[in-house]
Every structure is written in C-alpha cells, then in structure tokens.
Amino acid sequence: MVLFLIRYNELGLKSPRVRRRFQKRLIKNIEDKFLKAELDCFIESDWGRIYLTTDNQLQGLKLLKTVFGIFSISPVVNFSDDLDEITSAAVDYAKDLLTMGQSFALRTRRTGQHKYTSQDIANHVGAAILNGLKDRKLTVNLSAPDVEIFIEVRQKNSYIFSESFPGPGGLPLGTQGKVISIFTDKNSYIATWLMMKRGCRAYPVYFKSKNNKPQLNESKAMSQIELLTPWAPNLKLKIIEDNGKQNDKENAINLKNKEFQDFANRVRAKGICSSLDLNDFSKVIHILRNELPIFYPLIGLDKEMVKNLGNMIRDI
C-alpha cells in the first residue's frame, strides 16, 4: 500500500464555505477517477491536505496527475507526531535514500500545537542522520543539496517524503459553469483543457459542413477528444450539421444554427470556448445575435507556450 499526500493551492484562497465545497468536489472527482480505472482507494482530508491510500503507486500517481485542482502529489510514509518517532523514522528513511558522500537538507513544516518547533525538528533529525550514517560521510547543504528530505507534521501525524510530482492545478472540474467548446483547428483541445482547468465542464462541438473544407476534419476532432479523455473521461463530441455558407479564411461558424442553440440550452451552457489565439485574432467567429459570451483561453499565450501545453496534455 502507498499513501499519497495531495496538495491544492488555489482552493486555499477561497472563503471557508467555498473552500469546503470545492474540496468536497475535488475528493469526489478523485474517487470517480479511481472508480473508472477500477483501482481501490481510501481518502481522508484535513484543512489543507488530502490523503489517499491505494495499492498501486504508479497507476495511482498517473491518475492523480490528471485531476484538476491538485497542485502536487507526494508518496509519503506516515508516523505519529512524537519527535523521537519522527527522528527514528527519518533516519531509516535516509538510509534507503542517501549514498556515500552526498549532501542533504531537511525541509520541515508544522501545523498544530506541539512542544517543538519546525527548527527543532530539523536540528534533532539532522543530527541523528549525521550520527546514524556517519560512515557515509554525509554533509548538510541547505542551498544546493544532492537530496532533500521533507518532514511535515500536521496535528497528530507526521509525513516524510523526498519527491513531489506536479498536478495540473486550477479548480476542481465541475465547480464552475458549463461551456460549449468549438472544435475548429489543431489547438481546440488545448483551449478546452484550459477551460476545464478553470473548473468548467466542457461540451465539445464540431460543425460539419458540405460547403467548405475546414481546418479540422471530423476524424482529427475525434482524435483531439481522445487526448482529453485522461482528464475528463466522459467527454463526447457533438456533431452538428451546418449547411450554411461559411468562410473558412475567417473561421466563420454560424452559432445561430438551431441545433447548436438547442444543444446549448439543453446542457445549460454559460459560454462558448474558442481556440483563436493572439496571432489569429484577426480571424473572427461569426455570431448572429448569440447571447452566450465567448472565452478565448489562448489569447494571451504565444505559440511556444501553446505548443508546450499541447505536449504536456498529449504526454500525460
């Protein structure tokens, strides 16, 4: 079994009431991911951390990396808040981690009421590691160590770890409104991903027309949906037949299409997501008195940033 310590950052900026609601949604999203992957998990939480126990570290970590709202994940070992127990556990942990001649640093933090400070933990544990592993000729280097060992004491528990893996961050999926994401070009899935990172549930739409040759054909649009399924497994591409005249050079789409409007009303969409970026903003989406606002998540990103985002989404 492995225990993961899960952190979030943006949720911590919310009011206590909103924070509780968002954390509850984040936990539900994690449970849904593990349930769909048929991987057992047990989740607990406190004010600022989520703790997940599962029996498959690699698969569990891969799933957690695709949950919006998670800032970082660390596999940890868990002990009580007793300083002597923390020290003994840290020395054992260091034995498996540190090799001959390496330098190390202890990074400690503490939440709750204890008879010791974070600096006391660092001093006590650091001295014990140097003494217990003196045959390895270890040194302490706080600025550029070979290895960092983290000790986090939270109320009656302590957690020791040496690695942190990034999550996507943002807000938990489903905490914000629903958006229609128009798939028109190679970056549509990136724009959709960014809206989901803001907590929005996305409903991808592809306009199929016989009157022009679009930048993105139906097959490629489906491939983009497949890239997003690790992040949102229930995504389905809505195909809408649009026989109106379109100008492909302007990336024009008739959002007054009745089928589109009916679909937007049915899912109760609060807005529309477009993949136009700063370089292509001379192109416009043709709107005929459409009531929904349009979001341009790529508008402030240059081509290199968009490319890097796309690589990250594909490589997960």
State the main characteristics.
8 helices, Alpha-Beta Plaits, nine-stranded mixed sheet, five-stranded parallel sheet, 3 domains, VC0802-like, alpha/beta, 14 strands, single chain, Rossmann fold, 316 residues
Verbal overview:
The protein has 316 residues and is an alpha/beta fold. The protein folds into three domains: 2-78, Alpha-Beta Plaits (2-Layer Sandwich); 82-155, VC0802-like (2-Layer Sandwich), CATH 3.30.2130; 178-315, HUPs (Rossmann fold), CATH 3.40.50. It is 32% helix and 23% strand. It has eight helices and 14 strands. The strands form two sheets. Strands 1, 2, 3, 4, 5, 6, 7, 8 and 9 form a nine-stranded mixed beta sheet that branches. Helix 3 crosses helix 4. The longest helix has 21 residues, at 16-36. The chain is elongated, with a radius of gyration of 25 Å.
Brief description of this entry?
This protein is of the alpha/beta class. It is built from eight helices and 14 strands. Helix 3 (83-95) crosses helix 4 (118-132).
Shape: elongated
What is the count of DSSP helices, taking H or I runs of 4+ residues?
8
Order of helices and strands: EHEEHEHEHEEEEEHEHEHEEH
For the record, what is the CATH homologous superfamily label of the largest domain? Answer: HUPs
What ranges have pLDDT less than 50 throughout 5 or more consecutive residues?
247-251
What is the CATH class name of the largest domain? Alpha Beta
Structural class: alpha/beta
How many domains? The number is 3
Distance between the amino and carboxyl termini? 23 Å
CATH fold name of the largest domain: Rossmann fold
Strand residues, percent: 15-25%
CATH architecture grouping of the largest domain: 3-Layer(aba) Sandwich
